[in-house]
Amino acid sequence: MARIIVITSGKGGVGKTTTAAAFAMGLAQRGHKTAVVDFDVGLRNLDLIMGCERRVVFDFVNVINGEANLNQALIRDKRCDQLFVLPASQTRDKDALTKDGVGQVIDELSKTFDYVVCDSPAGIEHGAMMAMYYADDAIVVTNPEVSSVRDSDRMLGILSSKSRRAEANEAPIEEFLLLTRYVPERVARGEMLSVDDVQEILSLKLIGVIPESQAVLNASNAGNPVILDKHSQAGMAYSDTVDRYLGQERPHRFLTIEKKGLLSRWFKG
Amino acid sequence: MGLLDYFRGQRSKGSAELAKERLQILVAHDRAERSRPLYLPKLQREILEVIRKYVAVDMDAISVNYEQDEDREVLEVNVVLPDAVDQRS
């Protein structure tokens, strides 16, 4: 049985797809057979972030409609053979993802995979509801910014009432907070909500803090999940996040301002 | 950042603090709203209908509140009755 993880947020542009790509790659690199599924029907982007956009033949909706089988639609990653991508469809029909159809695909993935990472679209419309419905765990991606924090809280309410687990009266979805685009300098100046502030407001288990990093744009430009950039702070922070998810103790890094040496301050400005 | 700004920055309230205060109020409010039972608006409407059979009250003369503590739930129904003169015979 696979563990189903949804990457969600409510608000758009906070880093869900970046996180889904990095997280899935991290799990796969650690030897777990992982599928990452794009639920953003009509606005598919996970394939671009994963760098497999030219290899898409069949998609999620094709599988649900029986036009292709799952193995035809899954794209094996070229960098890590434990990782597979199931791309979203570019159809404009929003209701293409039926509850039963999604359930059947998740069930089938569950048979052969260890983890299924569901990349949710923004908002609380049908696609987002389908992405979280079958989840066992939820990673709530949040920016240290008022509208993102509020939307995350709203999403927590939905996770606890509208999921399969909630409807079946099973143990609730386990929820984790992932704070992204964190800028320690601005936090120190009192211009940005701190990790502690956000955690206090949402009272969620913190699974990671990803610092704002140029590496993220560089990685998406090239179609490489940022976790592969092992020298970047964002890459390292995602790596720690995956380890923590798998139960290892990792201290949170990059939360405070780096002290620049006198020399580098003189020469780099 | 100059030395003066440094000391000033320490003393004055940053915008993050404002954000936190606003969010705490908002999130508490949102959560209270969420924990309310879904039947509340219908309950309010039906209670009002019953009361209006006997007393001429306004639509907004009734309020139904739901509060939840750690170990108890309180359903509060508040009806503002009009002056005796308005009562139906």
From TrEMBL, chain A:
SUPFAM superfamilies: P-loop containing nucleoside triphosphate hydrolases (SSF52540)
Domain CobQ/CobB/MinD/ParA nucleotide binding residue range list: 5-226
Keyword field: ATP-binding, Cell cycle, Cell division, Nucleotide-binding, Septation
CDD domains: MinD
Tagged with keyword ATP-binding: yes
Taxonomic superkingdom: Bacteria
Main function: ATPase required for the correct placement of the division site. Cell division inhibitors MinC and MinD act in concert to form an inhibitor capable of blocking formation of the polar Z ring septums. Rapidly oscillates between the poles of the cell to destabilize FtsZ filaments that have formed before they mature into polar Z rings.
NCBIfam families per UniProt: minD_bact
Family: Belongs to the ParA family. MinD subfamily.
Subunit structure: Interacts with MinC and FtsZ.
The protein's name: Septum site-determining protein MinD
Source species of the chain: Thioalkalicoccus limnaeus
Gene encoding the protein: minD
UniProtKB/TrEMBL annotation, chain B:
Native source species: Thioalkalicoccus limnaeus
Gene Ontology biological process terms in this record: cell division
Lineage, highest ranks first: Bacteria, Pseudomonadati, Pseudomonadota, Gammaproteobacteria, Chromatiales
InterPro entries: MinE, MinE_sf
Known function: Prevents the cell division inhibition by proteins MinC and MinD at internal division sites while permitting inhibition at polar sites. This ensures cell division at the proper site by restricting the formation of a division septum at the midpoint of the long axis of the cell.
Gene that specifies this protein: minE
Superkingdom: Bacteria
Keyword vocabulary terms for this entry: Cell cycle, Cell division
Cell division keyword on record: yes
Record family assignment: Belongs to the MinE family.
Protein name (record): Cell division topological specificity factor
Parts of the chain that traverse the membrane: none
